[in-house]
Amino acid sequence: MIRWISLILSGLFLTIALGQEDANSSDLKEQELQQLRERVAALERLVQLLQSELSALKRNGAAPQTQTQLVALQQQTEAERRKLEEELQRELQQGVTPSPAPRPSSPSVAYGGGLWQALNPDTSVIANFRTGFRGKRPFASFMGSEFSEAELAFQAATDPFSRLDTFIAVAPEGAEIDEATLTILDPTFIGLPRNLQVRFGKLLAPFGQLNSIHPPEQPFVDSPLVHRLWFGHVHGNAHNSEGEETIPAEGLFTGTGISL
Q1: How far apart are CA 167 and CA 188, in angstroms?
Q2: Given pLDDT bands bounded at 50, 70 and 90, which one contains residue 209?
Q3: Calculated CA dihedral for residues 86, 92, 96, 101, nearest 10 degrees
Q4: Which of 134, 161, 201, 230 is the most exposed place for a label (fewest CB within 10 A)?
Q5: Residue 239 has what pLDDT?
Q6: Spatial distance between the Cα atoms of 26 and 32, rounded to a whole number of angstroms
Q7: Are 170 and 151 in contact (CB under 8 A)?
């Protein structure tokens, strides 16, 4: 019996709670509807106000203020444009003479370029050092090292037709001119054939392939014994003149001139 009474009371409480929730939800919906009605009424009043203002403007025939400002701005711009056109027309009628264009300046010519190049030749220094070792194993017995020779080279074009090459050998015994030559690159200015190249000065004897190579540039540590016995340490150089002429043929042939 008590259980049935408790079930009935629970049902009553549940019904009351659901009724309260329905009442609360209905109140919220009613409030939202009331707010929407107020907004619609405000919009209707605004539309009516705008319609009344528009009808008043139509009856009076007056343009809105913004349109009046645009028209005034256009008129001001048009007046300024007409003023500028009148000033330009007056200047054209006065016939203002244009200022003369400046005369082009003559290009400056620099003289003495070849002289400065001759005073500043291409310079190079090549040093040759030798070191000796003795023994079966590498670096087993160090025999010492020595300075063999240094070569100073000065080369420059003296003019468009010739160049000067000077090689100075500096050894522990002293310094000497190893080779000093003046090469005629274009012999036509002295009446010689174009394919003839002439060299004057102290030359290495043009014998074989090794003798014309300077010692620091040779592919050997020491010059070959036959070469040293035959030419000595001066490579057979002397005050020489040499001419080489290229003969046009299928191969390349050169003829060696006179050594004095």
Answers
A1: 27
A2: confident
A3: 120
A4: 134
A5: 47
A6: 10
A7: yes
pLDDT in tens, 3-13: 555 556 666 55
Say which DSSP state 237 is in.
Answer: -
Q: What is the DSSP letter of 210?
A: T
DSSP string, 101-133: PPPPPPPPPP--HHHHHHHS-EEEEEEEEEEEE
Report how far apart, in Å, the C-alpha atoms of 101 and of each of 97, 105, 123, 227 are. 12, 12, 49, 75
pLDDT at residue 252, as a whole number: 38
For residue 122, what are the β-bridge partners? 155
pLDDT computed for residue 154 by the predictor:
92
Q: Helix, strand or coil for residue 52?
A: helix
**CA 190 centroid distance within chain:** 45
* C-alpha span between 227 and 65 (Å, rounded): 113
Percent of the chain, pLDDT > 70?
Answer: 56
How far apart are the C-alpha atoms of 173 and 169, rounded to whole Å?
10
H or E stretch including 257? none
**Residue 250 clears pLDDT 70, i.e. is over it:** no
**Helix (H, G, I), strand (E, B), or coil: what is residue 216?**
helix
Which pTM was predicted?
A: 0.44
End-to-end Cα separation, the chain, in angstroms: 155
Using alpha carbons only, how large is the chain's radius of gyration in Å?
56
Indicate if the alpha-carbon torsion angle 70, 74, 75, 77 is positive or negative.
Answer: positive
